[in-house]
Amino acid sequence: MKAKALTIAGSDSGGGAGIQADIKTFQERDVFGMSAITAITAQNTLGVHGVYPQTLEAIEKQIDVVLSDIGADSVKTGMLFSKEIIELVSRLLKDYKVENIVVDPVMIAKGGAKLLQDEAIEALKKHLLPQATVITPNLPEACAILGWSDINSTEAMEEAALELYKLGAKNVVVKGGHLNHEQSIDILFDGKTYSYYTNNRINTKHTHGTGCTFAAAITAELAKGNSVSEAVSTAKSFITSAISEGLAIGKGIGPTNHGAYRKELTR
Ligand SMILES: Nc1ncnc2c1ncn2[C@@H]1O[C@H](COP(=O)(O)OP(=O)(O)O)[C@@H](O)[C@H]1O
Ligand SMILES: Cc1ncc(COP(=O)(O)OP(=O)(O)O)c(N)n1
């Protein structure tokens, strides 16, 4: 049977991040994609021009009807915007006993727009992180969750992964896209071992949606029954291809190319 994945996230009208990136990634990884939209953003390659959160009723209904009828082998959360939305999503994921939960703790878009209210960080820590199979913070997100000012080395990334693990997630991937390093290094910590996923840093400005795409690829692989380490490994290859063929569309930071990994495999 075809694997199914649900993304609970914000809509990016520009198509590079959020729900749109997730669904494109699920499709590329041969997983049936479903969505519950938490907020609509008016977004393009120049940034976020408007944020319109959906009502709790609308969000609950979307999740309810999908999980009660179709079900999901894995669920990804992205932009959740408020404490109230986090509490709602956490309750529903518990009620439906979802097994594989990937929490991408989206906080700030690359252009600087806030996608999570400051007061929601505590709710994220208290309710959602402890339910997660995998969490995928970038360096600023890891700092915000831990109350740290900076993470600027792989040693600090390992320390952050350990401290984040103590908040209850089964696995932590600290993404190193923001590290000033010639390689792009992500570190997975499963409570015992630190595993490094490393590729050469690609010199491009077209990286809109990298975090969403990477977490969506992990979600898709978990939905198909792969282990967390296999899922992270495939997601790393997927995002590296997508960035290497990033799309120079629009006047600003273009999106990654979700079809690039498939093309590479068939070459
Ligand atoms: N320039 C780059 N070259 C290669 N990989 C990158 C580059 N920028 C980010 N990545 C990878 O993309 C994924 C998303 O990372 P990151 O940019 O840190 O997340 P976010 O989009 O949440 O800020 C990670 O696997 C990271 O290593
Ligand atoms: C609707 C929406 N959700 C998440 C993001 C952030 O996406 P990310 O993959 O971290 O990429 P950047 O926006 O930082 O390039 C978003 N922008 N919009």
Automatic annotation (TrEMBL):
<dbReference type="GO" id="GO:0009228">
    <property type="term" value="P:thiamine biosynthetic process"/>
</dbReference>
<feature type="domain" description="Pyridoxamine kinase/Phosphomethylpyrimidine kinase">
    <location>
        <begin position="12"/>
        <end position="257"/>
    </location>
</feature>
<dbReference type="InterPro" id="IPR029056">
    <property type="entry name" value="Ribokinase-like"/>
</dbReference>
<keyword id="KW-0547">Nucleotide-binding</keyword>
<keyword id="KW-0784">Thiamine biosynthesis</keyword>
<dbReference type="GO" id="GO:0008902">
    <property type="term" value="F:hydroxymethylpyrimidine kinase activity"/>
</dbReference>
<comment type="similarity">
    <text>Belongs to the ThiD family.</text>
</comment>
<dbReference type="GO" id="GO:0005829">
    <property type="term" value="C:cytosol"/>
</dbReference>
<protein>
    <recommendedName>
        <fullName>Hydroxymethylpyrimidine/phosphomethylpyrimidine kinase</fullName>
        <ecNumber>2.7.1.49</ecNumber>
        <ecNumber>2.7.4.7</ecNumber>
    </recommendedName>
</protein>
<dbReference type="GO" id="GO:0005524">
    <property type="term" value="F:ATP binding"/>
</dbReference>
<dbReference type="InterPro" id="IPR013749">
    <property type="entry name" value="PM/HMP-P_kinase-1"/>
</dbReference>
<keyword id="KW-0808">Transferase</keyword>
<dbReference type="InterPro" id="IPR004399">
    <property type="entry name" value="HMP/HMP-P_kinase_dom"/>
</dbReference>
<dbReference type="GO" id="GO:0008972">
    <property type="term" value="F:phosphomethylpyrimidine kinase activity"/>
</dbReference>
<keyword id="KW-0067">ATP-binding</keyword>
<comment type="pathway">
    <text>Cofactor biosynthesis; thiamine diphosphate biosynthesis; 4-amino-2-methyl-5-diphosphomethylpyrimidine from 5-amino-1-(5-phospho-D-ribosyl)imidazole: step 3/3.</text>
</comment>
<keyword id="KW-0418">Kinase</keyword>
<dbReference type="Pfam" id="PF08543">
    <property type="entry name" value="Phos_pyr_kin"/>
</dbReference>
<comment type="pathway">
    <text>Cofactor biosynthesis; thiamine diphosphate biosynthesis; 4-amino-2-methyl-5-diphosphomethylpyrimidine from 5-amino-1-(5-phospho-D-ribosyl)imidazole: step 2/3.</text>
</comment>
